């Protein structure tokens, strides 16, 4: 009897690593959204003027300081977004048992694009047009920026719908006729 036969059937790879990466991203979002934006307790560089670190100061009570902190908060959110994306991708790969399948999954990415485009459409119509609480870019051409945002949302929804429809599915899941 071979060693593999004695150990039993191969177990799929665990979900610890993808779950930890996903947790890092989600934890970062909670920190960034709750502590940086909603409560405004701190920002990425709000304590950087600490003399022991020898870093320049970026106080949040000045426009230049807040601008620099906002840029660094955005970079922080980019890293947390990538961690969520990577964690979900790895988790999907582990669940399907096919490493790399996530990047080729037309169904998954099609629906992701539908969700992204749907967000753009709803947020754009409500916040930009109905409530007018902000615009994509202010100024003399703000209507065109807002309409472009809606057009992008429509393209994402349509493209995502077509992409997920083109995904191959098992014969048992296809509707008859």
Structure description:
The protein is mostly helical. It has 2 domains: 14-100; 105-177. Helix content is 65%, strand content 0%. The protein has 6 helices and no strands. The chain has helices at 3-7, 16-38, 63-96, 101-104, 106-130, 142-165. Helix 2 runs antiparallel to helix 3 and helix 5 packs antiparallel against helix 6 (142-165). It starts with a helix and ends in a 12-residue tail after the last helix.
* Number of strand elements: 0
SSE arrangement, N to C = HHHHHH
Number of H/I helices: 6
Radius of gyration: 23 Å
Overall SS class: mainly alpha
Low-confidence stretches: 171-177
Whole-number mean pLDDT: 83
Helix share, percent = 55-70%
Draw up the topology in text.
Layout: H1 3-7, H2 16-38, H3 63-96, H4 101-104, H5 106-130, H6 142-165
Helix pairs in contact: 2-3, 5-6
Key structural traits:
single chain; 177 residues; mainly alpha; 6 helices; 65% helix; 0% strand; flat
């Amino acid at each position: 009897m071979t060693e593999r036969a004695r150990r039993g059937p191969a177990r799929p790879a665990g979900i610890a690593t993808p779950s930890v990466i996903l947790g890092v991203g989600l934890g970062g979002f909670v920190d960034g959204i709750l502590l940086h934006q909603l409560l405004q307790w701190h920002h990425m560089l709000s304590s950087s003027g600490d003399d022991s670190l020898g870093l320049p100061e970026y106080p949040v009570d000045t426009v230049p300081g807040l601008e620099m902190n906002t840029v660094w908060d955005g970079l922080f959110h980019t890293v947390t977004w990538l961690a969520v994306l990577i964690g979900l991708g790895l988790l999907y790969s582990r669940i399907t048992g096919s490493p790399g399948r996530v990047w080729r999954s037309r169904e998954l990415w099609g629906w992701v694009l539908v969700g992204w485009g749907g967000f753009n459409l709803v947020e754009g119509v409500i916040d930009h047009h109905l409530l007018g609480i902000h615009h994509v870019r202010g100024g003399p051409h703000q209507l065109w920026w807002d309409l472009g945002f809606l057009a992008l949302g429509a393209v994402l929804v349509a493209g995502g719908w077509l992409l997920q429809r083109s995904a191959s599915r098992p014969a048992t899941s296809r509707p008859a006729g």
